[in-house]
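note to self: dont lose this again. the chain is below, predicted strucutre after it. 303 aa total, dont forget to put it in the shared folder this time
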Amino acid sequence: DQARKKPPPASRRVQDAFAQTQTTETPQVEEQEARLAVSDKEILQKKDFAQMTAAEIAEVTRAISTMRLPQAELRTRRYRPDAHGLRLDMRRTLRASLRTGGDIVDIRKLGRIEKPAPIVALLDISGSMSEYTRLFLHFLHAITDARKRVSVFLFGTRLTNVTRSLRARDPDEALARCSSAVEDWAGGTRIATSLHTFNKLWGRRVLGQGAVVLLISDGLEREADTRLAFEMDRLHRSCRRLIWLNPLLRYGGFEPKAQGIKMMLPYVDEFRPVHNLMSIEGLIEALSSRPQPRHRGLIQSAA
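---
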């Protein structure tokens, strides 16, 4: 008979009550933790890389490693068979008609071949950029892994091509190879000299087929003179689109007062900040769009 059964011991009643409390409170706790996680993620997206703790940098590095750059296709001058193409493929059309003795003419067409626009990154590794350099390299490694038409050059007082080093699958191994290949890490800055070397030795090799150039630098040139303007103009004329990514744009009241920055700005298509996750996501969105014809005025974007 259930009425005659003894109530459970006190300890057991406490355990049952505690278990019921946990069951009723768990969804609320999980919902609160989810809200906190979303809030923390939003804060992390807007936080300056230079102000992050070691744990936050590790979290950002993991987020960057999952980033992918959608293929922004660029039309080339070459053609391939395409049923929806606009150009008549006379050779294939005649061959097809010969098979039927000319009774049936099957029109064959050609369409333009589209390939991802090449990306060339020139990354400043001088001392003033030291708090951002490694995270930028992680980003370049992430987009290089998914898109092989990426060339990466590091510069401080000299220029170093690290494209092959950055193609290692493991990001830590790739960054270690880059570090061993560079002799002027966190040293001075000679932008004009580095751009001259790039334009002279590498420009024709990597800037073909509508390349997009990412110049990642604070623009604090040690020797700002007319050579800097000349080399920037030459670089600007050689590529389809020149985007200058500058961490100094994180300041709301930023003004281009430094002589080097003043000399470089006239030869830039876009001037964008690159100091947090949000700015990198904005860059990916800009790079994922089809390259547009060049505008006369400078486009400045802030995040």
